[in-house]
Write a structure and sequence with these properties.
156 residues, mainly alpha
Length: 156
């Protein structure tokens, strides 16, 4: 079953050099030098980077990083998501090769039936009702596109 528990394995096991690089980025966003990132700081960073987010998108990004629901993002939370993103993007072509063909009807959306076919092909049971509810919650009940799939991989 998909549990949605957050793990900090990537950040914990990262080299000191990589942690230093992440710290440098983190400190650049932490405009008030509090040691944590607020929603306002994250919003300002995206605007400054030329990629302003809609409120819904910003809330998703923030809640994805704020795993302890403290209302702030600490260095470890920030680092873990950055490293997950880096890992997924470094393997994007490989993931595409295996996962995009799941979309049997080629409509750009993965439905539960298509995902269950793949699960059956590797001798796994179909998604339970709880797992389906979890996926819908994570995608905010929008179509499960390839991009949403990557988002869910980042946050679970």
């Amino acid at each position: 079953m998909i549990e949605g528990r957050h793990h900090r394995v990537l950040f914990t096991n990262a080299s000191q050099e990589l942690k230093g690089d992440i710290r440098y980025i983190f400190d650049g966003i932490d405009s008030n030098n509090s040691g944590s990132l607020s929603l306002k700081e994250l919003s300002y960073h995206f605007q400054k980077a030329g990629n302003p987010l809609k409120e819904e998108e910003l809330n998703l990004v923030f809640s994805s990083m704020d795993v302890d629901s403290s209302g702030e993002i600490d260095l470890e939370e920030f680092g873990e998501l950055m490293l997950r993103h880096r890992y997924l993007m470094s393997r994007f072509e490989e993931f595409s090769t295996y996962f995009i063909p799941i979309d049997a009807d080629k409509n750009g959306v993965l439905d539960i039936r298509e995902m269950n076919v793949v699960l059956a092909s590797v001798d796994e049971p179909p998604f339970s009702e709880e797992e389906i509810a979890f996926l819908y919650q994570k995608t905010r009940e929008k179509d499960f596109t390839w991009e949403k799939f990557i988002e869910v991989l980042l946050v679970i």
